[in-house]
Design brief:
By secondary structure, the chain is mostly helical. Helix content is 63%, strand content 0%. It is elongated.
Length: 59
């Protein structure tokens, strides 16, 4: 996650601190899923990586 992009979004949309924390948690979860998918583990291989759109749809 590029935190400069997050700060730019925060300035642009005037997001509250709580919503920014939700976005950060969402990006961390997304990164974790992407990491597990790149390991080619059989358990995670069928799970599609989440996009940022559902997280941003909360707003």
């Amino acid at each position: 996650m590029d935190y400069r992009l997050l700060l730019m979004m925060m300035r642009h949309f005037n997001l509250s601190e709580k919503k920014v924390n939700i976005a950060v948690v969402g990006s961390v979860i997304e990164s974790a899923f992407s990491y597990f998918l790149t390991t080619k583990s059989p358990f995670w291989s069928h799970i599609q990586p989440p996009t940022a759109r559902p997280v941003l749809a909360v707003y």
